User: Which sequence fits this backbone?
C-alpha cells in the first residue's frame, strides 16, 4: 500500500524546530514523504525533544504535561526520546545528526540537499545563511528544490528581527485579543499555540501545491510563510469589520460572532465539568426550551428570535447555568443532541481517551516497537493509502 | 502560471469550514465551481455586513471565504438538479462536500453515487465522520473546539474554559480539509487513484497540535491532565503587560530569555546573579521588585515602541495587536497582507491578503466572491445543457 501514499518518493530535508515547522513536515510525512530531520547533537531542540535534556522525575512533575508527561512520570536517561510532544510531532520521521557548523558537517548536509525535493525551516531569521545555506547555496546543490521558510514575522520589512514562538505569533496575529473573558483585560490571557497548528497546516498545503507545480514544469521555488500573517487569516470577520466598517473587535468570551444566542460554556454537576452549547437557530432554541421543561423564564415573549434573546443574554446564560449545574454532563450532551440542539462536552484528555466514538472509529493506534502507549492516528482514512508508523 | 492550474473542484460546501478548504485551493489557481442551494450558502447572511447593511452579496464572511470561485445554484432535492450535479461532476477532478452523512444519502452525493457518474476523488468534511455513535450529531465552532480541541485547559482555573476568537476552530478544520484535498490531488495525479477522503471536523481538533495531541499523549503516558492555569503568568516576569496604548506578550523565563528581556529594559537593577538564582527568581519578592521597574517602563511606551526595543534585544516580546492595528499597520500593508477585490456590486474593497508568498506561482485574487448563481448558465452549458433546457430548469426552480 505504501506506494500509493500521495507523497511517496518525496524526500524532505527538515531543518524545522519547535512546533509550526515540525507540524508542517509531520503532515507531509504522514502522507508518505520521507522526512529526514536534521538535528545538531550539540544544539538542543527546545519545546519538543523534551523540556530539558537533564529533566528528572521531580522537574517533570512541575512542567506542563504536554512537554513533561513522560511515561509513568519518569523521563529516564534519554528524555528526548519519550517526551509526549516529541512522540507526536516527530512521528513518521527519521533523525539524522550532523554538526552543520563544521565544514565537514556542512558538506554532508549539502549532499543530503542534493537528494532532497523539499527543504523546510522555521529557524530564527538568518540562521541557515549563517552556516552557509542561503537560498542560492541550497539551489546550487539542487536547482529544482522547493524551499519552505516559515519566519515568525516575514523575511522582509521592519519586523523581521522580532523573536517569538506560538504565543507571540498569536498576539501579533490578532488572536490573543479575541480569546479572553468578556469581563477581564487581555492581561489575564494565558498562552496557547493556535498559530502553530495553523502555520503547520498551511505550510504543508503550500509545499504540496509547489510540488504539483514542480511535477508539471520541473520548476522548484521558494515559499515564504510568515506565521503571524498567515495566522491572522484565522480571524477574517474581525479583520474585515475593521477594514470595511471601521470597527475594532474585542473579546466576547464564549459568545458567538455568528449570531447564535445562547452560545457558551456552562458548568454541570461534578468537578470541572462543562457543557458547550450553541443555539444555531430559533428552532434549536425552542428545542432547548422544551428539553429544559419549558420554564416560565424561557417561554416569555421576546425570546423567540435571536435578537430578542441577545437583549437578555446575561440572564439567559445565568438561567441555563442554574439548570446545567444540576445535571450530568454526558446526560445533557446526548439528550440535547437527540433533541436537535448543538451541544457537547468540554472534553479533557481523559474524556477523549475514554470516548466511545473515537474508539469505535479507530482513532487510536499502537506504536511498535519503541513504545507501547497510544497516540491519535492521522485524521484521514482513505482507500488506497494510509498513514505509516515508524516513529 | 498558477500552482493549481488545470485542477477543477466541484465545491458542495457551505458555511465556514468547507469553504475555507476550497478557498485555499481557489486562491492558488484551482477552478472551484461552488454549488449553492436556492437562496444561497447560509454564510451569505453571516456578519459582519459591509457598512452593516445585510444583503446576499454583502457578507464579509462570505466574501472572504469564496474568492476566486464560481457560483451555480442547483436544487439537489430535485432529481433534475441532482442529474445536473452529476454532469458538472464530469468537468471536475475532485468533489469537496460538507453535508452530513444523512444529507449525502438524501441528496445523492455519497462517494458511491458520485463515483458511479464521474471519475472524481471525494473529500467529505463531516462533523463526526460516517460511522460511530456521534455520526449524526451537530457541531458549532464552540462545540467542536470544546470536544475536539484543548478548550479544557484554555482559560483560568477558577473560571469556565474558553473558546478561541471568532470562528477559528472551524477555519482550522477547513485548513485541514485543504491539506487532505492536496493529498488526494497528488494520489490521483501520480498514482491514478481516485478515492474517498473522510475528514471529520472532530478528528481534526482531536489531532490539533495546539497542545491537544500532546496533552492526550501525556495523559496516556503519565495520567497527568493539562489543567487551566491559576493565573496568567509564573516567575519573575512573563505574561501580558499593559503599555501606553494596549498590551504586549512577554516570555522572560530564566536563562537566555530573561537576559534578553533585561537587555530590552536596560535597567541595571535587573542585572546580576541574584536574578538568575531560581529560588529567588520564582519568589513573590522577585516579581514585586521586577514589576516596580517593568510596569513603568512598559506604560511609558506604546506597544509598537516596546516591540521595536524587543527586536533590538531579540527579546521574546510581541505586541497584542487588534484587527484595526492589522488593518492599518504600514509594515504588513507594504508586505501585502492586504489586497483589493473588485466586486461588480460592491465596488473596490480591501480584502485580507495571502497566507504565504510564493516565488513563482503567486497566491492571487483573480475575481471577487461570486454573486449568487452568477455562473449557473455558463457551467450548465459547459456540462452539455442547451440554452432552452437551462431556462426551463431555472423557471422550474431546479437551477437559479
Assistant:
Amino acid at each position: 500500500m505504501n506506494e500509493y501514499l500521495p507523497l511517496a518518493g518525496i524526500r524532505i530535508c527538515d531543518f524545522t524546530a519547535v512546533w509550526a515547522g515540525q507540524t508542517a513536515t509531520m503532515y507531509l510525512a504522514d502522507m508518505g514523504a520521507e522526512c529526514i530531520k536534521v538535528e545538531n547533537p550539540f544544539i538542543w531542540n527546545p519545546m519538543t525533544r523534551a523540556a530539558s535534556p537533564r529533566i528528572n522525575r521531580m522537574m517533570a512533575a512541575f512542567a506542563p504535561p504536554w512537554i513533561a508527561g513522560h511515561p509513568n512520570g519518569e523521563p529516564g536517561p534519554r528524555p528526548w526520546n519519550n517526551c509526549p510532544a516529541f512522540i507526536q510531532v516527530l512521528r513518521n520521521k527519521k533523525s539524522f545528526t550532523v554538526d552543520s557548523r563544521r565544514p565537514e558537517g556542512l558538506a554532508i548536509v549539502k549532499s543530503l540537499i542534493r537528494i532532497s525535493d523539499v527543504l523546510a525551516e522555521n529557524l530564527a531569521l538568518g540562521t541557515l545563511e549563517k552556516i552557509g545555506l542561503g537560498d542560492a547555496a541550497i539551489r546550487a546543490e539542487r536547482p529544482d528544490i522547493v524551499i519552505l521558510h516559515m519566519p515568525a514575522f516575514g523575511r522582509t520589512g521592519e519586523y523581521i528581527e522580532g523573536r517569538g514562538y506560538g504565543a507571540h505569533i498569536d498576539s501579533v496575529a490578532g488572536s490573543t485579543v479575541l480569546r479572553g473573558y468578556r469581563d477581564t483585560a487581555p492581561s489575564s490571557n494565558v498562552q496557547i499555540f493556535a498559530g502553530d497548528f495553523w502555520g503547520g497546516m498551511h505550510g504543508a498545503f503550500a509545499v504540496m501545491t509547489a510540488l504539483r507545480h514542480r511535477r508539471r514544469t520541473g520548476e522548484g521555488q521558494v515559499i515564504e510563510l510568515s506565521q503571524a500573517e498567515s495566522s491572522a487569516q484565522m480571524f477574517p470577520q474581525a479583520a474585515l469589520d475593521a477594514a470595511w466598517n471601521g470597527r475594532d473587535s474585542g473579546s466576547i468570551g464564549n459568545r458567538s460572532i455568528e449570531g447564535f444566542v445562547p452560545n457558551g460554556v456552562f458548568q454541570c454537576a461534578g468537578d470541572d465539568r462543562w457543557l458547550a452549547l450553541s443555539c444555531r437557530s430559533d428552532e434549536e432554541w425552542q428545542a432547548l426550551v422544551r428539553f429544559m421543561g419549558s420554564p416560565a423564564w424561557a417561554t416569555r415573549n421576546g425570546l423567540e428570535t435571536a435578537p430578542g434573546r441577545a437583549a437578555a443574554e446575561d440572564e439567559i446564560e445565568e438561567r441555563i447555568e442554574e439548570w446545567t449545574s444540576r445535571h450530568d454532563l454526558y446526560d445533557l450532551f446526548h439528550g440535547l443532541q437527540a433533541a436537535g440542539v448543538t451541544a457537547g462536552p468540554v472534553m479533557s484528555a481523559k474524556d477523549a481517551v475514554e470516548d466511545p466514538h473515537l474508539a469505535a472509529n479507530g482513532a487510536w493506534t499502537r506504536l511498535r516497537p519503541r513504545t507501547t502507549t497510544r497516540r491519535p492516528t492521522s485524521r484521514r482514512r482513505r482507500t488506497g493509502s494510509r498513514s505509516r508508523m515508524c516513529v | 502560471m498558477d500552482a493549481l492550474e488545470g485542477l477543477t473542484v466541484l465545491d458542495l460546501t457551505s458555511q465556514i469550514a468547507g469553504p475555507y478548504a476550497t478557498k485555499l485551493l481557489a486562491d492558488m489557481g484551482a477552478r472551484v465551481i461552488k454549488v449553492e442551494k436556492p437562496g444561497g450558502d447560509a454564510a451569505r447572511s453571516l456578519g459582519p455586513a459591509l457598512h452593516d447593511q445585510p444583503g446576499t452579496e454583502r457578507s464579509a464572511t462570505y466574501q472572504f471565504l469564496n474568492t476566486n470561485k464560481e457560483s451555480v445554484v442547483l436544487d439537489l432535492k430535485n432529481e433534475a438538479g441532482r442529474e445536473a450535479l452529476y454532469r458538472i461532476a464530469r468537468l471536475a477532478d475532485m468533489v469537496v462536500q460538507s453535508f452530513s452523512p444523512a444529507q449525502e444519502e438524501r441528496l445523492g452525493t455519497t462517494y458511491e453515487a458520485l463515483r458511479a457518474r464521474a471519475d472524481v476523488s471525494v473529500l467529505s468534511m463531516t462533523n463526526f465522520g460516517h460511522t460511530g455513535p456521534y455520526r449524526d450529531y451537530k457541531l458549532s465552532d464552540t462545540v467542536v473546539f470544546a470536544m475536539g480541541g484543548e478548550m479544557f485547559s484554555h482559560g483560568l482555573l477558577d473560571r469556565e474554559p474558553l473558546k478561541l476568537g471568532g470562528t477559528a476552530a472551524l477555519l482550522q478544520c477547513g485548513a485541514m480539509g485543504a491539506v487532505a484535498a492536496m493529498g488526494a490531488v497528488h494520489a490521483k495525479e501520480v498514482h491514478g487513484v481516485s478515492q474517498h477522503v473522510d475528514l471529520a471536523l472532530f478528528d481534526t481538533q482531536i489531532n490539533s497540535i495546539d497542545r491537544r495531541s500532546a496533552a492526550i499523549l501525556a495523559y496516556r503516558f503519565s495520567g497527568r491532565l493539562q489543567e487551566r492555569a491559576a493565573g496568567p503568568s509564573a516567575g519573575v516576569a512573563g505574561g501580558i503587560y499593559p503599555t501606553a496604548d494596549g498590551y504586549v506578550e512577554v516570555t522572560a523565563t530564566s536563562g537566555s530569555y530573561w537576559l534578553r528581556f533585561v537587555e530590552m529594559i536596560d535597567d541595571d537593577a535587573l542585572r546580576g546573579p541574584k536574578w538568575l538564582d531560581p529560588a529567588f527568581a520564582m519568589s513573590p519578592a522577585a516579581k514585586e521588585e521586577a514589576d516596580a521597574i517593568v510596569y513603568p517602563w512598559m506604560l511609558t511606551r506604546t506597544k509598537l515602541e516596546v516591540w521595536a526595543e524587543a527586536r533590538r534585544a531579540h527579546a521574546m516580546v510581541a505586541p497584542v495587536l487588534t484587527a484595526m492595528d492589522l488593518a492599518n499597520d504600514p509594515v504588513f500593508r507594504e508586505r501585502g497582507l492586504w489586497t483589493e477585490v473588485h466586486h461588480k456590486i460592491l465596488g473596490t474593497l480591501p480584502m485580507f491578503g495571502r497566507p504565504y508568498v510564493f516565488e513563482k506561482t503567486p497566491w492571487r485574487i483573480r475575481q471577487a466572491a461570486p454573486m449568487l448563481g452568477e455562473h449557473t448558465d455558463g457551467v450548465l452549458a459547459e456540462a452539455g445543457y442547451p440554452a432552452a433546457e437551462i431556462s426551463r430548469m431555472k423557471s422550474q426552480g431546479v437551477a437559479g
